[in-house]
Amino acid sequence: MTRRVVRTAIQLGVLCMITVLLLIFVDNRYRVLPSSIHNHLPAHHPGLVIVDVTVKTCNSINPISSCRLDPDKWHRIEKDLYLNKSWLSRAYVHVQRKKEEELDDDDRVVLDMKIGRLDPANGEKGEGNERWEARPAGIWLKRSTKPHMGDSQKAVTAVDVLFGADAVEPRPGWEIKDHPLLLDTSAEIQESRISIRRGNPSDVPKPIPRINKDGKFKIMQAADLHLATGIGLCRDPEPAGWNGGKCDADTRTLDFIGKVLDDEKPDLVVLSGDQVNGDTAPDAQSAVFKFAELFIKRKIPYAAIFGNHDDEGSLNRAALMSLIESLPYSLSEPGPATVDGVGNYYVEILARGTSQHSALTLYLLDTHGYSPDEKNFRGYDWLKKNQIDWFKETAQGLKHAHKQYTHVHMDLAFIHIPLPEYRNTNNYIVGSFKEPPTAPGFNSGFKDALVEEGVLLVSCGHDHVNDYCSLDKSPEGAPQLWMCYGGGAGFGGYGGYDGYHRRVRFFEIDMNEARVTTYKRLEYGDTEKRLDEQIIVDAGKVVGGP
């Protein structure tokens, strides 16, 4: 009796499974199930699909001219294809989006897009019978031939606009189209490019940085990339006549960063501000994607903070951080909303092996932009009290957690604008001190907080042609904190002091000896040399000096 019941139950279970699988198969093709069930099937990914795309152009002088289609039917991508630089014209991409369960017999989802003046079906093998439809600005859509084809894994589910002949698309699942949308752009107007995503957004898990098996870990600090929308304009390139005098700022900057990434193979990159050159980045997203692609394609984690120029383009700090945070291999975070600034956070580097204990903590803080009290404190802003309080509370909490570890733990910090103590010329200095540090006029006491909490070094950017490390000592003369500059890396920012060559800084950590060695690499000249190599931490303590 028992065997018969078990056998019958197994047979019914198999029959139910076959029935469910058959229903899923049929539903994927013909949508036979109600939406309440369809949306929860394991083979279905609910979301929006694109059913149409067009470009609306208008006259920017005519006050009654509108560049907006019916908002009940069309979603406008809020990027003028002329980047607001044309006196006469504006143009915007519009998309029609629908939930899959709302598709009707007249809807044909978009399966592909091409940009060009010729019908893609002409002369292309195997595409003569495809349904390509023309839209303004040279857009061609391949649309489904059957209604209800709402499989979001095949359909185009998102459309974006990027700018510049050098535009790249680092987001997984996205594809940038080769040809520009508009042909009537001038040299001042960067060409616009369509980017599309098929399927649902990919999950982007945060990487977990860890000390390598040999006990070592290498950090590259890239300061002041100053990337633009498009290839950018070189400022003070050295040598001036190199490459026949031709210098495309972003191309040369990205080539330099790519080369040192391949040479040095860092485990983590810290971007210490002014990645985006706001004045020349009317589409900051396109600039962000260029530096992000460098790290993503090499699978290198990176953490970013902002300088005084990043948010002078099309995106504010919060939007920039949200964008960077969403990208693969990014460790960047906005930090607590109750603390001034965007980008006050820390990154833990785990010990080697499978340990869940931290070996290094990197503190990253937002030094803001320009002075809020120019009358009394000219120049640049400073770290606020609630930021310093947050840092101290966080550091003390982490130190308490780290007490259980048997290995040495070290703390480092990164900011953009230098601290007032960087001006101290009586300190022991290694490297180039070529311009007066443009530290804030008001000293909020962050250097003292770093020392109190046992941070071993802090490194900044901002002053492009300073690349020195300065040793701060206690009143008794004991080394207590190294204050370093990264050195400007980007050709979109200034560099015209005494034949200055762009550079980046490295911190090579050896946890076997609790040692930190730092050095720089040049973009031009003796590019293979480790410049000003020095040990700044040994046995977990600040060392150096005469």
List keywords for this structure.
single chain; 546 residues; alpha+beta; Vitelline Membrane Outer Layer Protein I, subunit A; Purple Acid Phosphatase, chain A, domain 2; 7-stranded mixed β-sheet; 7 helices; 25% strand; globular
In short, what is this structure?
With about 550 residues, the chain is α+β, with helices and mostly antiparallel strands. It has helices at about 1-30, 35-40, 250-265, 285-295, 315-325, 385-400, 445-450, and strands at about 50-60, 75, 90-100, 110-115, 130-135, 140-145, 155-165, 175, 190-200, 215-220, 270, 300-305, 345-350, 360-365, 410-415, 430, 455-460, 470-475, 480-485, 505-510, 515-520, 530-540, 540.
Describe the structure.
- The structure is a single chain.
- The protein is an alpha+beta fold and 546 residues long.
- The chain has 2 domains: 48-198, Vitelline Membrane Outer Layer Protein I, subunit A (Aligned Prism), CATH 2.100.10; 216-542, Metallo-dependent phosphatases (Purple Acid Phosphatase, chain A, domain 2, 4-Layer Sandwich).
- It is 18% helix and 25% strand.
- The protein has 7 helices and 23 strands.
- The protein has a 7-stranded mixed beta sheet with strand order 12-11-10-20-21-22-23, with helices on one face. Strands 13-14-15-17-19-18-16 form a 7-stranded mixed beta sheet, with no helix packed on it. A 3-stranded antiparallel beta sheet has the order 1-3-2, with no helix packed on it.
- Strand 5 and strand 6 (139-143) form a beta hairpin.
- It is globular and about 80 Å long.
- The termini are far apart.
- Residues 217-465 form the Calcineurin-like phosphoesterase domain.
- It comes from Xylona heveae (strain CBS 132557 / TC161).
- GO terms for molecular function: phosphoprotein phosphatase activity.
- This is Metallo-dependent phosphatase.
- Keywords: Membrane, Transmembrane, Transmembrane helix.
